[in-house]
């Protein structure tokens, strides 16, 4: 396991190294604007299976991804008016939008499901990482499924136990602030359904939508 300590001066270097790991089918533990996440090529069946194994997560539970911007998301998913309203108001930020995937997209995180969840974190490393890789990257909290999410690398690795050895690269940004996870909104039908209220309040989601109607 390789560990790189992230600073303001080496963001580009860290993103480049993380990209190299993903290109080789590996897994990266990295910071976001909410929690530490597990990153892999979102459209690689093998890489996504590694994420499920590390988290000991049930296959039926979807894993979301980060993208650099909506233009990247539009290559793989249908970005409707509702999605654009919420993206304009809250992205980059702690919001996950669940979109209907485009025809022909059926690998990795989209295998056997009709949607994909996208994030654009308000985080310099995430932006550089997504830009460097040029395709969606998995983002799911770095913990065993159902267990609490630690804010420090040592706590995360301890919590994952033997599975932590399957992580190829750690981008260590130190202890992250105590944040709630992203708010998850399913807009795949064109009508918003809040699946999880997190850092963004449900009332703020509805207010943003009402303001545009």
Automatic annotation (TrEMBL):
Entry keyword annotation includes Cytoplasm: yes
Intracellular or extracellular location(s): Cytoplasm
Stretches assigned to the YrdC-like domain: 12-200
Molecular function, one GO term: L-threonylcarbamoyladenylate synthase
Catalytically driven reaction(s): L-threonine + hydrogencarbonate + ATP = L-threonylcarbamoyladenylate + diphosphate + H2O
A biological process from GO: regulation of translational fidelity
Protein name: L-threonylcarbamoyladenylate synthase
UniProt keyword Cytoplasm, yes or no: yes
Pfam families: Sua5_yciO_yrdC
Keywords: ATP-binding, Cytoplasm, Nucleotide-binding, Nucleotidyltransferase, Transferase, tRNA processing
Primary localisation category: cytoplasm
EC number: 2.7.7.87
Organism: Candidatus Kaiserbacteria bacterium GW2011_GWC2_52_8b
Gene Ontology CC annotations of this record: cytoplasm
Family: Belongs to the SUA5 family.
């Amino acid at each position: 396991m390789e560990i790189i300590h992230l600073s303001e001066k080496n963001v580009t270097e860290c993103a480049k190294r993380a990209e190299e790991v993903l290109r080789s089918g590996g897994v990266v533990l990295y910071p976001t604007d909410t929690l530490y996440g597990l990153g892999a090529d979102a459209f690689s069946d093998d890489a996504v299976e590694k994420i499920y194994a590390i988290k000991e997560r049930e296959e039926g539970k979807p894993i979301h991804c980060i993208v650099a911007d909506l233009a990247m998301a539009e290559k793989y998913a249908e970005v409707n008016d509702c999605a654009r309203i919420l993206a304009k108001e809250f992205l980059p930020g702690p919001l996950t939008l669940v979109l209907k995937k485009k025809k022909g997209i059926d690998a990795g995180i989209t295998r056997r499901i009709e949607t994909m969840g996208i994030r654009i974190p308000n985080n310099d490393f995430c932006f550089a990482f997504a830009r460097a890789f040029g395709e969606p990257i998995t983002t799911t909290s770095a913990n065993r499924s159902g267990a609490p999410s630690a804010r420090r690398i040592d706590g995360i690795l301890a919590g994952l136990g033997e599975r932590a050895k399957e992580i190829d690269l750690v981008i260590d940004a130190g202890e992250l602030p105590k944040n709630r996870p992203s708010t998850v909104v399913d807009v795949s039908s064109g009508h918003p359904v809040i699946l999880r209220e997190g850092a963004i309040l449900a009332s703020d989601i509805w207010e943003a939508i009402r303001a545009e109607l």
